Every structure is written in C-alpha cells, then in structure tokens.
Amino acid sequence: MKTLAIIGSGHLGQQIAHYAIADKHYGKVVFFDDVTAEKSVNGHAVLGTSDAIESAYARQEFDEILIGIGYKHLNVRAQLFERFDGKIPFGQIVHSSVWVDPTAQIAAGCVIYPGGVIDAHAKISENTILNVSCTIAHDTTIGKHCFLSPRVAVAGFVTTGQQCILGINSTIIDNISMVAHTQIGGGTVVIKNIENPGLYVGNPHKFIR
C-alpha cells in the first residue's frame, strides 16, 4: 500500500494519520513538521521540515501528501497547498463510513471524517476538511481550504468561498452564498447570504467582528 506524508504532526495531523491507517487508505504514514524537534510521533517518523518534502518525494520516501494543519492556520494550509500543487501528488481520505453520491465530486487534498453525507452533485474543493458527521446536501459547493467542524449541516445550492470555517453544529439553509474568509460560530444558523468576511454567530446569524 501507499505511504502518506502529512505536513504537521500536531493533533489534527495525528487524527489524519489514524484514519489513514485504521481505515486502510494507506499502509504507512510519515510526517513533515516545521515546529517539532521530535524524530517520531505516535510511531510515525518525522522526516524533516517542509523544505525536505520535495527531495524526500524524489527519493520515493512517500507517495502522496496531505496537510494536517487546522482551522487556526487556514492561510498556512492554503500556502502549503499552492506551494506543492503540481509538484507532489495530493492524497485524499474519505472515511469508509461516509455516504458519497456517485455524482458528488471530492477534490485532491480533502479529508472527510466518519459519518458524513455528501449528496448528489455536491462538490468539496481542494484541501478541505470535513470533521465528524458533516452533511453536505445536493448541488452545494464547499470552497478550497475550508474547515468544517463536527456535525455541520449545509443545505442544497449553497456556495462557500475559500478558507471558510464552519463551527460545530452550525446550519446553513438552502440557496446561500458565503464569501471567502467567513467564520461561522458553533450552533449558528445562517439564513441569508454573507457578503462580508468576518465572524458570525447566533440564530439567526449576526456579524460580530
């Protein structure tokens, strides 16, 4: 089986490593990390910093890569994806418990945690993470480099921009568009288009900052 490299060996990277192995998407995981000095994390070797990735790939030390950096650093996620896109193959993990309609599209670099639903003609764009039990209804597009927390529910014909964060248990009703760099707080219900980036919370949603 293939070897997966994960950029970032923190909690999110470790979760992705767990699903990669436990759900049998990859046979081996290695890390690259610009912060830690550890040589191994949870039994997975740390091969160096992000500057070592291209040379390690040239030496065939891994086959595909994913970014294990979370919602607090979406700009870094986006920069790393753009840096290696076209140079290193990006992998994909869609947990075996996720229901994916045959017409749905899930792009490279995405990770979808257990229990999700990706409905007809939905599109999950590059380098996006959907945490546990997210539901993406028909004809909805989630933009690049987004992070959806557990149990997010997105109705049909919704479009989000890039680098959006949807908080735990948030709900987006149908026919909504959301600009890039929008953050939706936990439990928030979005009932109208969001045209200005920022943090929105409440039911119905209100702009905070």
Features of this protein?
single chain; about 210 residues; alpha/beta; Rossmann fold; UDP N-Acetylglucosamine Acyltransferase, domain 1; 2 domains; 8-stranded mixed beta sheet; 6-stranded parallel beta sheet; globular
What report would you give on this structure?
The chain is an alpha/beta fold. It has two domains: 3-84, Rossmann fold, CATH 3.40.50.20; 93-199, Hexapeptide repeat proteins (UDP N-Acetylglucosamine Acyltransferase, domain 1, 3 Solenoid). The chain contains three helices and 24 strands. The strands form six sheets. Strands 6-9-12-15-18-21-23-24 form an eight-stranded mixed β-sheet, covered by helices on one side. Strands 7-10-13-16-19-22 form a six-stranded parallel β-sheet, with no helix packed on it. Strand 3 and strand 4 form a beta hairpin. The longest helix is centred in the N-terminal third of the chain and has 12 residues, at 11-22.
Structural class: alpha/beta
Unreliable residue stretches: none
Strand order of the largest sheet: 6-9-12-15-18-21-23-24
What is the tally of beta strands?
A: 24
CATH superfamily of the largest domain: Hexapeptide repeat proteins
| Tally of helical runs | 3
Our Rg estimate from Cα atoms comes to: 17 Å
What is the makeup of the main sheet? 8 strands, mixed
Average pLDDT: 97
Principal-axes shape call: globular
Count of domains: 2
The succession of helices and strands, N to C, reads EHEEEHEHEEEEEEEEEEEEEEEEEEE
CATH architect. name of the largest domain? 3 Solenoid
**Beta-strand level of the residues, as a percent range?**
25-35%
Intertermini distance: 47 Å
Give the fraction of residues assigned to helices: 10-25%
In CATH terms, what is the fold-level topology of the largest domain? Answer: UDP N-Acetylglucosamine Acyltransferase, domain 1
